[in-house]
Request: fold
Amino acid sequence: MKRNAILPAKRHRLERPPWLPESEWPFVTCGIEVDNSMIAVSEAGQGPILLFVHVGTWSFVWRDLVTRLASGFRCVFFDAPGTGQSHEGGADAATMHRASRATAAVIDALDLDEFTLIAHDLGGPASFAALSTMPERARGIVAMNTFGWRPSSTSLRSMLAIVGNPLMRELDVMTGLVPRITASSFGIGRHLDWPSRAAFRAGLGSRGLRSFHDYMRDALHCDDVYGRAAAVLAGPLAGVPLLTIFGERNDPFGFQMRWKELFPAARQIVVPKGNHFPMCDAPDFVADSIRSWHQGLLTGTRIYVGG
Reply:
């Protein structure tokens, strides 16, 4: 894999932490300052730009997909405030507003243009809200087990309230239940060996785990973020090509159906036996799907794959 350094004129290289060996993270990572936080940004490959945005755990979730796409794309991915290698800027770092500002700052600092956004989980509303001030920069969207509107169903809001409860957060810090589940085959670990699982869990840590729960709690209340996300999806981004990729076993809130209502021309893919992290469950299939769909963007034709 060819690795790209981020331009030193706008940002500086971060020291590799001792818990993240190069064998598990073969990327150059640099930092940019946003809201008194240092946001860790990594790159791999050359070609059309793919911007990967995940909010919740950290960008290790993209590793195996990026390694498959870097031969033909410039892949950019980062850790949201308070997660992974990003250094939090205070107790309130893990909010959707801060994650959205971090996304916009990465786009500005790297001068990303004509990129395809690939969003997962809470990375959806955070990145769509960021694009509300620069919608012309996005040429396509891949929505991966994510959404872009205010949670309204009782079941979704209940889940966010439970997971975001401070007592649940501290219990999880003591027991490590969420890291263990997320690193398992039910989460990102279906094809990971033990060193990779250990690196992921180390990057989550107690600080990142608290941030995970704080993001879930804030996701109940960030109406401004949801408002900006919904407005840009219904307005400037309404005509942008959309690909949705969801795990077969993890769309309990009907997000793919909602995406199809908003974007009738969307291409939709379901990963067989996939869970919440389809890019980890079937990285080859997901990479091939994105590659073929993106080729259609370049040629102006629709190419259907799988599913």
